[in-house]
Amino acid sequence: MYPIMFLVKASVTLLAVINCSGVHAYCENNASVKLSSYKYKYKSQVIDDASDIISMTVDHRISKATCDYTDSYGFRGNKVWVDNGCRAVFKICYTKDAGAYCQHKTSLRLSSNGYQYASQILDDAAIVTSMRVRHQISKATCDYGDSYGFRGSTMWVNNGCRAIFSVCFRKGTSVTVECSSRDYKPKVCKIPTNGGRVLSVVPEKHKSRSPCLPGDSYFHTDKVIRVTNGCRAVFRVGIKN
Question: Which pTM does this prediction carry?
Answer without folding.
Answer: 0.64
